[in-house]
Design goal:
By secondary structure, the protein is α+β, with helices and mostly antiparallel strands. Helix content is about 55%, strand content about 20%.
Length: about 90
């Protein structure tokens, strides 16, 4: 979620100039669009164009975090085992 919010903020603040501008990010899954309206107002639209890339990113991040947690727990158990072995000697 942080990645999505940061990307939308980046898209918002990276627009330059007036008129109609449409920017996409994260493989076309997020978009930011600004249109000049009557009277000099600017209309802004942002959102999800295609959620497939977002779902894939979520799954990849979940797998990475899960493996990181499993590795951390394994290393922590190994450390405790080594400490016990040293205390016995």
């Amino acid at each position: 979620m942080v990645t999505v919010a940061a990307t939308l903020l980046y898209l918002m603040f990276s627009t330059d100039g007036d008129g109609t501008i449409r920017k996409e990010a994260l493989f076309g899954s997020l978009f930011f669009e600004q249109k000049e309206k009557a009277g000099g107002a600017i209309g802004v639209t942002m959102g999800v164009a295609n959620p497939t890339a977002l779902i894939f990113m979520f799954l990849v991040f979940t797998v990475i975090l899960t493996f990181t947690q499993i590795t951390y727990r394994g290393l922590k158990q190994r450390r405790e085992q080594l400490i016990r072995e040293m205390a016995e000697n």
